[in-house]
């Protein structure tokens, strides 16, 4: 059995958090909603230990719900999504603890462009460094630079 965490926004713009169980039986997947909460009722999102690369986290509602993401990156993606939803739909900062803040609220200009743009910028700078090396010819690199810019 697998628990799946779903976010939904209803007609009155309330964000609902649902825990759905995936029950497999005879090659058929069936889903059962086991818990429902509203984002405004989320008291605290606890990443457990920011120094360790672990996917476990805890959501504090009226009760405490321990969960495990697929990976640590997925846990941080979930936290960024919840922070964004809380800011836009609940008009409040979501209380977080035990998260590395730089991964939740990026401060770099390039980090808000998405991973693909960051990778393109790194490749562009690397190509420029190659051009500056003694003996390198700008003509050899023009095709590559056109693709990166």
From TrEMBL:
<dbReference type="InterPro" id="IPR028258">
    <property type="entry name" value="Sec3-PIP2_bind"/>
</dbReference>
<protein>
    <recommendedName>
        <fullName>Exocyst complex component Sec3 PIP2-binding N-terminal domain-containing protein</fullName>
    </recommendedName>
</protein>
<feature type="domain" description="Exocyst complex component Sec3 PIP2-binding N-terminal">
    <location>
        <begin position="2"/>
        <end position="89"/>
    </location>
</feature>
<dbReference type="Pfam" id="PF15277">
    <property type="entry name" value="Sec3-PIP2_bind"/>
</dbReference>
